[in-house]
Amino acid sequence: MPLVSYEITDVDGTPTGTIVTTTITGDFPGSPFAGLRYRFSDYDDSAIRVLRIAP
After folding, report:
1. How far apart, in whole angstroms, are the C-alpha atoms of residue 7 and residue 3?
2. Smaller CB count within 10 Å for the chain: N or C?
3. pLDDT band at residue 1, thresholds of 50, 70 and 90?
4. Tell me: the pLDDT tens digits for 13-41?
């Protein structure tokens, strides 16, 4: 199993949610992979209801 680390490079609040951008580094082809965006669009203090992950 490859070891993987994530580095948060940006957090942006938008009217439709929060976008967290990361760089992922590990023992896999294409490492490091920069610019992966996690889009949180429906969440509160107790749960994330919608999360989209995209390059």
Report:
1. 14
2. N
3. low
4. 999 889 999 999 999 899 999 998 999 88
| Token code pair at residue 55 | 């390059």
Structural domain count, the chain = 1
Sign of the CA dihedral running 21, 25, 26, 28 = positive
Spatial separation of the C-alpha atoms in residues 14 and 2, rounded to whole Å: 33
- What the block records as the tokens of 50 is 């919608």
User: What whole-number distance in Å separates Cα of residue 51 and Cα of residue 6?
Assistant: 17
Domain hosting residue 20, numbered range:
4-54
Burial of 29 (0-12, 13-18, 19+ CB in 10 A): exposed
